[in-house]
Design a protein that fits this description.
Elements (H helix, E strand, L loop, with lengths): L16 H18 L26 E3 L13 H14 L7 E6 L2 H15 L4 E5 L4 H10 L3 E4 L9 H10 L6 E6 L11 H8 L5 E7 L3 H5 L15 E5 L11 E6 L22 E3 H39 L5 E2 L5 E5 L3 H6 L3 E3 L2 E5 L6 H19 L1
Parallel strand pairs: 3-4, 3-5, 5-6, 6-7
Antiparallel strand pairs: 1-9, 2-8, 7-8, 10-11, 11-13, 12-13
Helix pairs in contact: 2-8, 3-4, 5-6, 8-10
Pfam families: Pyridoxal_deC
InterPro entries: Group_II_Decarboxylase, PyrdxlP-dep_de-COase, PyrdxlP-dep_Trfase, PyrdxlP-dep_Trfase_major
Protein name: Aminotransferase class V-fold PLP-dependent enzyme
């Protein structure tokens, strides 16, 4: 547990605002100095939205559904709808085919998708691979759904044959809810949802949710595209708004096929329909997403993904030379390697699992940073062999 910093305690009397501002600016400066060495986590730190600082003086509350008016009318819903239309197209759907909203994170959006799946198949088991994000287990616990862990293939994708066997054992349960992953946490693998739907049909009716938090925007701009989206049979999916895109606040996008949602009315108090989980949602997050996407455009987003993929391939080459046994799922930004010593892990903010570590070549990761990192890995290996 983190020890509380007594300097940050909120006291009985007002503080010195100038001193607090200085303290917060120092925090921001400290983080900025570390940014170029943050290789192990998928948040793109290369963004600049300081020109939107005046938005911090306005309360934007997207209350209820993005598509519904509300009594307060202090919202940024038209901008949220524009963001949702962009993500619907990216995920292989027409805007009218899906319902969506901007959530606080991809974990919330995943929870929304699984709640929809439970309503459609209330007795079904949930199937996810041993490479899936831990938030799936937490969502199942919250919703009272039983999770079945499916084995993965050596490349990190869910094993369709093991899914078929597991589903067949539980065929009396009333269907199957499959949570596929587009961009697994440690390996960056992308499950083939077409193959998984076919395999799970051994249990009867199948609902497929895709956790595309880490890899949705990447997969959408990879050629040929993997089978990950609504175009390939997804019923719902979630995508991160702050990972490869880059944002100063976390955000997630929930998208569900329209016909799967009930027409749930909100309370009379808000005068809005509401099929979200949160009711009150950050309009600021939608505005920042809109500004970020507008600044890139579709061609800019494709160029960003392409450059990040090139850096990943470059990292594999440099780490091979360093003797680090690198691996890369085709089209992914996640490069795995033999876990280096603690000082390398700490310096470069690596994510580790067992004997492996990884880096994720999102926008702020440069060729120069990869060179310096590979040099540290090579030096550490020499120390171990000496």
């Amino acid at each position: 547990m983190t020890t509380p910093d007594l300097r940050l305690a909120i006291g009985d009397l007002p503080s010195d605002p100038a001193a607090d501002t200085t303290h917060l600016h120092q925090l921001a400066d400290n983080i900025r100095r570390e940014e170029r060495r943050v290789l192990g986590f998928p948040g793109n730190l290369d963004f600049s939205l300081e020109n939107l600082a005046p938005l911090l003086g306005v309360f934007f509350n997207n209350l209820g559904d993005p598509y519904s008016p509300d009594a307060a009318n202090l919202n940024a819903k038209p901008y949220e709808v524009a963001v949702l239309e962009y993500f619907a197209a990216v995920a292989g759907a027409q805007p009218r085919e899906v319902y969506g909203y901007v959530a606080s994170s991809s974990s919330e959006a995943l929870l929304h998708g699984l709640a929809t799946a439970r309503r459609m198949l209330p007795a079904a088991y949930v199937y996810a691979s041993d490479q899936a994000h831990y938030s799936i287990r937490r969502a199942c616990e919250l919703l009272g759904m039983e999770l079945v862990t499916v084995a993965s293939c050596p490349n990190g994708t869910m094993n369709p044959e093991d899914l078929r066997v597991q589903a067949l054992r539980r065929r009396r349960a009333g269907g199957a809810i499959v949570v596929a992953t587009c961009g697994t946490t440690m390996l960056g693998a992308v499950d083939d949802i077409t193959a998984l739907r076919a395999a799970a049909s051994a249990a009867g009716e199948v609902y497929v949710h895709v956790d595309a938090a880490g890899g949705g925007l990447v997969a959408a701009h990879t050629h040929p595209q993997p089978n990950w989206s609504f175009a390939h049979g997804a019923d719902s999916l979630n995508v991160s708004g702050h990972k490869i895109l880059g944002m100063p606040v976390p955000a997630g996008i929930s998208l569900v096929r329209h016909e799967l949602l009930s027409e749930t009315a909100g309370g009379e108090y808000i005068a809005a329909t509401d099929r979200t989980l949160a009711c009150s949602r950050s309009g600021l997050a939608s505005l920042l997403l809109w500004a970020r996407l507008r600044s890139l455009g579709r061609t800019g987003m494709a160029a960003l993904v392409g450059r990040c993929q090139e850096v990943a391939v470059y990292a594999v080459d440099r780490l091979e030379r360093a003797g680090a046994d690198p691996g890369l799922f085709p089209g992914s930004l996640t490069v795995t390697l033999t876990r280096p010593p603690t000082w390398v892990v700490g310096k470069w903010h690596l994510a580790c699992a067992g004997e492996r570590a990884h880096l994720v070549t999102v926008g702020h990761v440069t060729y120069a940073a990869v060179d310096e990192f590979a040099a540290d890995v090579a030096a550490a290996r020499c120390e171990l062999l000496a």
